[in-house]
Amino acid sequence: MRKFANLLFVVFGLVVIHPVVAQDVLPVRGLCIAAPQVDELDDFIAFIDQELAPRQVNVLVLRVDYNYQFESHPELQDEVALSKEQVKRLVDLCQKHNIRLIPQINLLGHQSWASDLGNLLKVYPQFDETPHVEMPENYQWPNEDGLYCKSYCPLHPGVHEVVFALMDEICEVFETDAFHAGMDEVFYIGDDQCPRCSGRDKAELFAGEVNKIQNHLAQNNRQLWIWGDRLLDGKTTGMGMWEASMNNTHRAIDLISKEVMICDWHYERPDKSAVYFAMKGLDVLTCPWRNPDHAVLQTRDMFDFRASATSEMKDRYQGMMQTVWSGAGAFMKEFYNSEDTTTNTAANCFRAMFAEIEQLTAKEEHNKK
């Protein structure tokens, strides 16, 4: 039988949990952040080496979108984008540190931001769910059109040929067994003026798109990850239109594949909706952002859920994933240059969450001796 003491090692006088133990206690210890820009790549590689690996981060979701030199659809890539060789540097480093590297491209929703269309709808405007809604010169929220972000039409006959080609290519270059499709904050779905979607059940439309993507990924033994907000009832729970759904997509939770990983984010309150997802038979992560106190509570909750769950439920509580909504460069600047460790920032939240994970992991393993 392995001795607890043999599964610890010391770095600069600090006790650090062995990676095997850490994963046994909490399967996912993740970070979700924008893929670095080309001129940020060297700094980001150093960040993985110096900050992620020592904290035993074992999942890194990179929001790539069009920051890659796609061969399948070069017309969609950003003007300056990561090359295959640059991505392979990230792949090799993450494999060295046993970090599961997962790319993200926003599918369905988030096809625009503020006054700017995303690359997909710029190049293929026919995929737009709401072509009658024009992008404003000066974006404001709220607005008469209810425009937050554009969506593509999930029933357009040409959209999946394009997005699946992007998915397949980015998964291949990342050498990954999972893909994150985003799918959060989808406000435009089943629009009354869409010739294909009008009158259809929004929950069925959302679930249909989730399952279509999951089924395509499963052909190559890959798993779909999505944000969980569209699967929560914003009215009944009081969570509202951002962290939950107010347009009736929430019923899709009973229609989607149980193979999908749910990334359950709550930034304003540390709500315990991970229990709801797990009870629906779905694997779930809890995802904080910039509130360190909330992140600590959410981490404790995740450990408690796993400790108190039935054997059938325990492994559905997969762990924690810090989310970062700035660019990689901005986050690293905040992480290294800010002397304020008390305010609500993503960097402080990151530190607090992983410190709590380390303490609770050590405590749990000590109790097993």
UniProtKB/TrEMBL annotation:
Enzyme class: hydrolase
Keywords associated with the record: Glycosidase, Hydrolase
Cited PANTHER family: BETA-HEXOSAMINIDASE (PTHR22600), BETA-N-ACETYLHEXOSAMINIDASE (PTHR22600:SF57)
Catalytic site positions: E185 (proton donor)
Reactions mediated catalytically: Hydrolysis of terminal non-reducing N-acetyl-D-hexosamine residues in N-acetyl-beta-D-hexosaminides
Lineage of origin: Bacteria, Pseudomonadati, Bacteroidota, Bacteroidia, Marinilabiliales
Homology family: Belongs to the glycosyl hydrolase 20 family.
Pfam families, sorted: Glyco_hydro_20 (PF00728)
Protein name, per record: beta-N-acetylhexosaminidase
UniProt record, GO biological process: carbohydrate metabolic process; glycosaminoglycan metabolic process
EC number: 3.2.1.52
The keyword Cell cycle appears for this protein: no
Gene Ontology cellular-component terms listed: membrane
GO MF, any single term: beta-N-acetylhexosaminidase activity
Gene3D superfamilies: Glycosidases (3.20.20.80)
Domain Glycoside hydrolase family 20 catalytic: 79-288
